[in-house]
Every structure is written in structure tokens, then in C-alpha cells.
């Protein structure tokens, strides 16, 4: 159905759940900020995540240090930003 569910470490907002968490998220949790956006693929890093939508847009969130999110942000992103 194209919905994205995440779980695990979320210290930099890498799960896209809208907030950071000191504790591990133990169960699959729907990424609400992507509601209505078909997620075709997702790539998950230790502190960041990237998704490709059905329309080919690239979205990224989590730790932005060293430009790793691909859109110039150096700080953590708790929701998502579209890369150009």
C-alpha cells in the first residue's frame, strides 16, 4: 500500500516520527508525515533515512551533519525534506 513503517533507534529523528526519542522504538510505527505519499523505496542509515516516492521524488530526514541528507541542511530534520 506504499505506507512506511519504522522502528529502532530514533536519537536524531531518523525514523521520521516527528520527534527524537532516547529509547528504541520497539514496534513498527507508521510514519504519519508521509501519509498519502506512496513510498516506493527506502534506504536507512544509522542516523538518517531516505525514501523515494512513487512519483520519483527523493525525501530525506534524520541527522544532517556533513550534508548527508542531500539538501544543504546540516541539522537534524524530524519530518522530511525533498531533495532537488
TrEMBL record:
First and last residues of every RCC repeat: 2-55
Pfam families, A to Z: RCC1
Lineage top rank: taxon: Eukaryota
Native source species: Citrus sinensis (Sweet orange)
Keywords: Repeat
PANTHER family cross-referenced by the UniProt entry: ANKYRIN REPEAT-CONTAINING PROTEIN (PTHR22870:SF466), REGULATOR OF CHROMOSOME CONDENSATION (PTHR22870)
Name of the protein: Uncharacterized protein
SUPFAM superfamilies: RCC1/BLIP-II (SSF50985)
Taxonomic classification: Eukaryota, Viridiplantae, Streptophyta, Embryophyta, Tracheophyta
Amino acid at each position: 500500500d506504499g505506507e512506511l513503517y519504522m522502528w529502532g533507534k530514533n536519537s536524531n529523528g531518523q525514523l521520521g516520527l516527528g520527534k527524537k526519542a532516547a529509547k528504541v522504538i520497539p514496534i513498527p510505527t507508521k510514519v504519519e508525515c508521509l501519509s498519502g505519499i506512496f513510498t516506493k523505496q527506502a534506504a536507512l542509515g544509522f542516523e538518517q533515512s531516505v525514501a523515494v516516492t512513487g512519483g520519483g521524488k527523493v525525501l530525506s530526514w534524520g541527522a544532517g551533519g556533513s550534508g548527508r541528507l542531500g539538501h544543504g541542511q546540516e541539522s537534524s530534520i524530524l519530518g522530511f525534506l525533498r531533495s532537488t
